[in-house]
Design a protein that fits this description.
Keywords: Cell membrane, Membrane. The protein is α/β, with parallel strands linked by helices. It is about 35% helix and about 20% strand. The chain is built from eight helices and 16 strands. The strands form three sheets. It has a seven-stranded mixed β-sheet with strand order 1-2-4-6-8-10-12, with no helix packed on it. Strands 3-5-7-9-11-13-14 form a seven-stranded mixed β-sheet, with no helix packed on it.
Length: about 475
């Protein structure tokens, strides 16, 4: 028994050494590699929970979740290829990354098509962070890239939490499940792909059309043998010249074989036949062929007129609880007066227009507008300025929060009753807050440059004035 126990112990040690020697990207006999199994844990864990909660919410959120599920499936296919193949050339790698890239583009395009969706914040959170799946092309630091994409989604996940924290716990759980996907993915990358996607050290070099090899048991059929080589070219005949071309070729070779005797057939030119010694012959000489003309730029073609931009009809209507103000061009007297506390206003793609909102309303969103003015009485929720340029906002009554995101040029005129409101800004520039004082407005810029230092325990960030 002692000998048997010793033998078992020796076998366990040998197996442990073999497992240690095998790399994380190698898979033997078609078995799933260690890091593919770890990736499956993310899919069956946080991703499955996120999909389940999205199905409870339904609508656009569920459709978006199905796209995310497909994106993770495409990435798993790429990991299977990497686990059994060596790293290919950059051109082939680009082809292998296309399924993941197309899945990311599909997720982002869906969000752009659903800007009026009641769950637009959910769609935006997913759309802003899904590029994190591109970590497979990020070397040597893929993990920080995933974190950066997660940070981009936090703006919208916080809005979902703020909107549904007291209303529906399902949405709160949805945010936690979705954020955990990228958190777990960061941990996964740190463990298995620290400096980039890990490829197998053995096996064939990955090709653009190669799928991960099947296990021997089950039997993928072997590829068919290559076809026979083409017949040798027959040089004795030519497709166009026939026998005549063969005679001409033989005559050419015979002339070459003469060596120095080939010059004997040349005609001697006497002194009286040379034009440089007889000016009278110059006028009788054959015209000299002109050389190629100097390069000149071709006649410019008329530029093709660009296709006229598609103009959508202007919209100003109440759709359920939402006032929709869209595609307004040069409209200076837009007024929404018959308002209720439960209603919201959404202004989209308006240019050189002015909108006035009377009464008390829940919230106002100005999205993708240029040179627009907004005047409102009271808002109990939030006023959001997103993806805009040169916007002016005037508060007549009160508003608790004004959010400015991805906007260049925004002037906010506060009233006496709204001086306590919070201004939240991100990725914006040229922001100015005008505060009433003695009947006039005092203009104060919102900081755009910051200084961050480590105080020994935490990072401390303070606003700095731009030098220059």
């Amino acid at each position: 028994m002692a000998e048997l126990a010793s033998l078992v112990q020796r076998l366990e040690v040998a197996v442990g050494r073999l497992e240690a020697m095998s790399g994380p990207g190698d898979s033997a006999g078609g078995a799933v590699s260690v890091y593919v199994e770890a990736f499956d844990g993310i899919v069956s864990g946080p991703v499955a929970q996120y999909v389940s909660l999205s199905q409870k919410i339904g609508g656009d959120v569920q459709k978006h979740a199905d796209m995310i599920k497909q994106a993770f499936s495409s990435q798993r296919q790429l990991l299977m290829t990497a686990s059994s193949s060596q790293k290919p050339s950059d051109a082939v790698l680009t082809t292998l990354l296309q399924p993941v890239s197309k899945a990311i583009q599909q997720v982002q395009a869906f969000r752009e098509q659903k800007r009026t969706s009641p769950h637009f914040n959910h769609l935006s959170a997913v759309s802003e962070s899904v590029p994190a799946l591109g970590w497979v092309a990020m070397a040597p630091k893929p993990c920080p890239y995933v974190k950066e994409m997660l940070d981009a989604a936090m703006f919208y996940t916080n809005r979902v939490l703020k909107e549904f924290k007291e209303k529906d716990k399902t949405h709160v759980d949805w945010v936690k499940a979705y954020v955990s996907i990228w958190t777990e993915l960061q941990n996964y990358i740190k463990q298995h792909h620290t400096t980039g996607l890990t490829w197998s050290k053995s096996g064939p070099i990955a090709s653009a059309t190669a799928a991960p090899p099947c296990a021997p048991a089950g039997g993928c059929p072997p590829p068919p043998p290559p076809g026979p080589p083409p017949p040798p070219m027959d040089l004795s005949t030519s497709s166009s010249g026939g026998a005549n071309s063969g005679d001409e070729r033989n005559a050419l070779f015979a002339s070459i074989n003469k060596g120095s005797d080939i010059t004997k057939v040349l005609k001697h030119v006497s002194e009286d036949q040379k034009t440089h010694k007889n000016p009278a012959l110059r006028g009788q000489s054959a015209p000299v062929r002109a050389g190629p003309k100097p390069f000149s730029s071709p006649t410019p073609r008329p530029a093709a007129s660009p296709a006229p931009a598609r103009t959508l009809p202007p919209v100003l209507e109440l759709d359920g609880k939402k006032w929709k103000v869209e595609n307004q061009e040069g409209a200076q007297n837009l007024v929404i007066s018959d308002t209720e506390l439960k209603q919201v206003v959404y202004a989209y793609k308006c240019n050189k227009s002015t909108l006035q909102v009377k009464g008390k309303i829940n919230s106002i969103t100005v999205d993708n507008c240029k040179k627009m003015g907004l005047v409102f009485d009271d808002v109990v929720g939030i006023v959001e300025i997103i993806n805009c340029k040169d916007i002016k906002v005037q508060v007549i009554g009160k508003v608790p929060t004004i959010s400015i995101n991805k906007t260049d040029g925004c002037h906010v005129y506060l009233s006496e009753g709204s001086l306590s409101c919070e201004i939240v800004s991100a990725k914006s520039s040229e922001m100015n807050i005008l505060v009433p004082k003695d009947g006039e407005f005092t203009e104060l810029p919102v900081p755009e440059q910051f200084k961050t230092v480590w105080d020994g325990q935490k990072l401390v960030t303070t606003a700095t004035e731009i030098a220059g």
